[in-house]
Amino acid sequence: MSVSATAPALKADDRPIDYASMRRRRRGFVLPLVLGGLLCVLVLVPIVLMFVGSIRTGTFVDPRAQFSLRSLTTVYTTLPFLTSLAVTVGASLLVSFIASLVGIALAWLLARTDMPAKGLMENAVIAPLYLSPFVGALAWLILASPNAGLLNVLARDLFGATGPILNVTTATGIILVMALYNVPYAYMTVSAALKGMDPSMEEASYLNGAGTLSTALKVTFPVVRPSIISAFFFVFVLTCGTFSIPAALGGTQAMPFLAVDIYRSVATYPINYARAAAIGTLLFWISLIGVAFYRYASRIATRFVTVTARGYRMRLVKLRGWQLPAMLLIVAYVTLAIILPYLALLYVAFTSFTSSSILDATFTLANIQSVVGSVAVRQSIGNTLLVGILAPTLCVLLGVIIAYSIRRLRIRGAGALDYIAMFPIAVPGIVFGTGIFWTYLMTPAYGTIWILVIAFVASYIPFAYRMVDTSIIQIDKSLEEASAVCGASHWRTAWQVTFKLIRPGILSAWILVFIFSVREISAAILLASPSNKVLSVMSWDYLEFGNVQNAAIIGLLQTLILVAGVIVSRYVLRIRLSQAT
Amino acid sequence: MTGYGVSSRSRRVRFQASALAAVAAFGLSLLADAALAQSGSGGPSPELIAAAKAEGTLTYYHTTAIDPTAVWTAEFTKKYGIKTQNVRGPSYPLFERWLTEERVGQHMADVVQITDTVLIESAHKEGLVADYIPPSGSGIRPDMKKEGVWYTLFVNAMGIAWNSTKVTPEEEKLIREGGWNVLTDPRWKGRIATGTPASGGSSYSYVYMFLGGKRDQFGPDFVAKMAALKPQVYESKSPMYDRLAAGEHAIVDQASQSDMGGLYQKGAPIRWVFPKPTPANLTVQAISAKAPHPNAARLFQEWATSAEGQAAWFKVSGVASARPDTVDPRKAAKADWYREAWYADPEDLYINYLNDPGYTDPEKPIIGEWNQIFGR
Predict the structure, then answer these.
(1) Could you report the predicted ipTM of this complex, rounded to two decimals?
(2) Of 1.10.20.10, 3.40.190.10, 3.40.50.1240, 3.40.50.2020, which CATH number belongs to B156-280+346-373?
(3) What is the per-residue DSSP string for B305-371?
(4) Which 61-120 residues of chain A touch chain B by CB within 8 A?
(5) What CATH code would you report for B8-155+282-332?
(6) Per the count of CB atoms within 10 A, which of A9, A91, A484, B17 is most buried?
(7) Residue numbers in B near A148 (CB within 8 A)
(8) Residues of A whose CB is below 8 A from B236
């Protein structure tokens, strides 16, 4: 295959299967209306409620509440909030830059060079996904708070360091920890593009005498540039709405951050829902700009058809003397993102109180016994598993239906559906959770496990939809056409060809949403009730009471569930997360 | 926090012994008090117990720590066979959620616990709190209840705590003898932490003493001197205590007996004093007007205000009781921190602020003033 054929995404010409007439005959308005209605309730209503909430002086049911523009004016025009906005955007850009840089380097090393033990390395690079960022931040607080951080105390005791060698409770610290936990997203996006790219272009460059560096810069980089841009803005949007890491590492004292301001508005006196919602709308606009860039870039990135009936062979760059430094980069990343945090969590889990001196610490099994013996914890493990299976299944199912309707059935209003399905990515979990709260407050779903399932399906539909959509675009239509030419019916083609080919995409999407659902914290806190407590809420509750020990144990339990889920999918379903985009 | 290494049975025996000893020691006035409590608590009526058992379950919205609360409510379950569903949340968000649920008719909570009596009274005015006088409520100290509305579960006294490995012996002497003014000493710059009154409940009551009730004695100058030390400000106090134990901070304020006692039990190098006057805050509970299990709610309120319920709370959390006839069994036994030379009970509790106009003002003006002084 010399040059990848660009799939004319929404152009209707020269195809033997007459999707257009099929659409007219079978669908008409029913499917677009049903899908549109579903997306409106799931996605638009909570967002609209956020906007309405920003112009109410109290909650929707507060008898004294009135309409007022005061909160919007305050948030959009006064200095503390504008400063917060500038810092949030600046810090998020920095986080994306660092995470993308590391992610690109790791992706290139593992996809294009002769690094040893690639499978192991790849699993190590995406392993930080299995740790809730909130628990990761907690681990880093234990490791590198200025006076009592384990690393700082060790440096003081062993090397006589006078000041802290690392301090995560500063703006720099918060940015670096956020970057650390976003590397896997950048890695996965760029790695998928690299793996999907036709290596014959690089081959041609080598044949014409170009070296490794100039091939990487002049051929590889330009081809994967759209996926780099999409990774950058994806991380940017995620970071803008992150609440748990800056909150755990010192709140607004170290660095103003809009998502933390939102939490403070609803959790500290004077409680001001209007201000929380107004900050939410501000974040929404910022994220929407990020989503627009992300959408644009990912459309270009995924326009290349890569799943074809033709095979190809990859040529690997020989690292030679660079192998050691490259290994060191990966080892350093893995140490910072996984090994140190897990050691810190394990240490804390077995100590009777958080002691900064490992030598003086008193070790105990009492914490483990109390967590395992707690009825609330056992219930929340069950709930976590239930939500962890239901939410990704429903979410991916909906994603498949939307993507197939838009790409292959090309229903009416496809463009609008595509946009709405991407909206939730622009709304931080803590704001979306509030919207979901108000949407379902008066329905029977309120207070049950279903409200969490609904919240997670709505929050993660952009991921499921985009990943399935990407897989569909990458299918060469000639495969489906071959099936049609051989006389297979439309549905038979869809079932035996299209869905079979996008199965890896579907399963990767499932795993990603599974991971998100098990880790999610901000919306779950707002929607928690006796019958739907999940592990992430338990760890938050424990930490709020200064019980770092139990919070760490819950974080480790979450990791166990995530790893178990990923192992099942890896060895039973034979799917790797790194195939995800 | 659960369990102090003593079996519950021996603890109960010791408690009973110490309760008797305490009654003997406190003299006639307390005896009268206790007698009053006894007379009022002929126990719940068999009809109430039967109706509550028929309901079989109870939903409890609480702000206290998860595990100790679960141990405590398990005692109730053990006695009456009524299961409890405990929902924990931070004070204000949990309260707002309960308000919202009640207003739209999603009645889930039976009993609601809160650290802010002003809020629960405003909810009572809105008709969201049930009027019910538990017979045992008569044993609760008069300034620790609003008859028929809310009853105190426990009293939280707050002092100064320090990490003994992070201060010198001279500094320790200074803290123990210097009163509240020690908090403004420039030596603590970069070594001190505090909690924002905006997180409500006990932190608000604590700061209220300095900027409100005892403004003449302390006032904005005192707070400004503290702010000048650039303390680390926590939104929630418990993580601050954990960091104190770890040695991140040398000294913190708003140190409560229950939390410090818990850390002490775990072997943390923590000590604490209660300078005079000692601000105290009440953790109270009320019955939701539309409780889905009204009889279980009443029975629970009755049990929580009884000597038995209050003593059960003592077992999980060493704090001052709202009943004069319950005494910490550790104290009678001179166990734990009661045997330490540095420890002394609070002597001058500051609690009579609950009806101050400055305290009950829904705008809570001292929070704004505190934020301004701290530049937040």
Answers:
(1) 0.81
(2) 3.40.190.10
(3) HSHHHHHHHHHHS--B-SSTT---HHHHTT-GGGG-TT----SSEE-TTTT-HHHH-TT-HHHHHHH
(4) 61-63
(5) 3.40.190.10
(6) A91
(7) 243, 246-248
(8) 544
